[in-house]
Amino acid sequence: MSAALLGEWSRLLVASLVEAGIVHAVVCPGSRSTPFAWALAERSELVCHSLIDERDAAFFALGLARVTGEPALVLSTSGSAAANFFPAIVEARLARLPLLVVTADRPLELQAAEAAQTIDQVKLYGDHVRAFFDLGAPDAAPSALAGLKRSVLQAVLATRQPECGPVHLNARARKPLEPVAATPNDQALVAKVEALAKRGTTRVSRAGAMLEPGAVAELARELGRAERTLVVCGPLPVFRERTGALVRELAARLGAPVFAEATSGARFGEEAASGADALDWLLRSAAFRSELSPDCVLRIGAPPTSGGLEPWLAEHPEIALHLLAEHGHPDALGRARTLTLAPIEALLEALTQALAAHEPHAEQRAFAERLERANEAAWRSVHAVTQRAPSFGEPEAVRLALESIPAGGLLVLGNSLPVRLVDSFVPAAGARVRVASQRGANGIDGLVAGAAGSALAARCPSLLLLGDVSLAHDLGGLAAARLVRTPLALVVLDNGGGRIFEQLPVARLWERAPERAELWLTPPALAFEHAAALFDLPYSAPRDAGELRSALGRAFEHRGATLVHVRVEPHAARDTTRAVVAVLERTLNEVLELGART
To answer: What is the DSSP letter of 202?
Structure first.
């Protein structure tokens, strides 16, 4: 076998990746991946990033894809290193984000022989990937070289079609792994590789998900017949930049109020759609749930974060639920009357056009006006409670954090409590930002690394809002944050960990056995300033609103990541929520009675 074969095989593999459209490659160091990493570094068209931790590397690549909508590549060596990609692969599949996972592997003769760093990597990720390709051992045969190029094209294509998701390429390599210069005896091999590389890839055309005019027309008729329609927007991709304007236009045509979660991208900015942006508060009120119900809910995107929406719909089986989504079957309770699947922006445009002659009914206008009064009452209740809060807490910290982001910047929302705090305490149009979130599997894995990837791809001032447990879970992600050269504020809300569980039914169990609360409340109690110093990141720990404003101002002047550590009272979110609900219940009784008489 030619000593140059592995190097030429790797060169063709990477040339095919570039031709297929790969731009970003995230490389994790290792021995078995040496020939592939070297070939990646040789291509000036590629932007290569180096990260030690495979889990964070994969989430960083996913963060890139979340903003660009295009697949990034992540490369690991063989063995358990490859297993660390799994959490990001799960997220990529559920969030429908393109990701190309390349794992270097030992040759077949080393399998099942206790060779170092050797595991069975064939279909390692099971059905969590859209497709799996084992490239086999390097082979100089023309058919093998052509097959390598075709397999790479198929793999990259499979990250995008028929729907986006993760794909696994397994690339085997024998020692010696380091590339060697081609000798005169290798010229025939080099010529074959050059010819294949210059030939270009096969152009593949696919219509993709097509709108069905009949389904759109029927949905328009149903919406036109409804007398009290409410529009709800759940998580949507950040790269769908026109969604907010299209939702607002459709809602105006229907005369319908809109509850757009921050994760939808339709809540903030000049194109924000609103009218029911306090719905999550209203759903906590018995008066609202009994007195002010729509007869139709049009839900756009993935299932919302709101914990109140599904129980409310269950209380009112007469409400017709219609779903618009790009993929999947986002109807866990089987409540939907219709589910229309198509590219979301094209779907919104088509539905708005189908309703061109529609005029909102008088009852629709009355419903919208009454809901608007209830919505305003909810925000007054929030303001009344937070204004008299005895200490600096999450509501004020979250509001100031969003206000600090320069117009057009990127907000990355952490899961658990932060994503809910934004919808609870920041009204629609309260910030002019784009929003990215990790709502595929809704986990806290890799939040820092993912935000770093998104910030790098967005090339604009960015802010990650996350909790102390999430930061502790992804301290290694601070290494990824060091790769960012635009302002990135990492705002950690330190409330003593796990406080979302105080707002869930499990908290009632602790009244009988308080010592067991530690199984849910897991305060990291870490000195995060040492983590910042370890990764050479600026750090601040503001103690009040004024100090937080100053700290965020400095963060957005710094070209890189800054850790802003905001300590708040452990029970502040729970106590504030209870107080708002109590005030709102009294206020709504008055508002809804007034609405009934007018």
So the answer is: P
pLDDT tens digits for 247-265?
Answer: 999 999 999 999 999 999 8
Q: Are 548 and 397 in contact (CB under 8 A)?
A: yes
- Give per-residue pLDDT as tens, 277-325: 999 999 998 888 888 889 999 999 999 998 889 888 888 889 999 999 9
pLDDT number for residue 598: 46
**Alpha-carbon gap, residue 279 to 261, rounded angstroms:** 10
Tokens of 452: 């770093």
**Strand ranges (DSSP E) for 157-267?**
166-172, 229-233, 258-260
Structure tokens belonging to residue 6:
């592995």
Distance, CA of 324 to CA of 229 (rounded, Å): 15
Looking at residue 377, its pLDDT comes to: 94
Check whether 94 has a pLDDT greater than 50: yes
How many whole angstroms separate alpha carbon 309 and alpha carbon 311? 6
Spatial strand order in the sheet of 433-437: 433-437, 409-413, 462-467, 488-494, 561-567, 539-540
Domains of the chain, with CATH numbers?
A: 5-175+187-199 (3.40.50.970), 213-364 (3.40.50.1220), 392-568 (3.40.50.970)
CB contact at 8 A, 249 and 271 = no
* Ranges of H-type helices in 24-178: 34-42, 54-68, 80-83, 86-95, 142-158
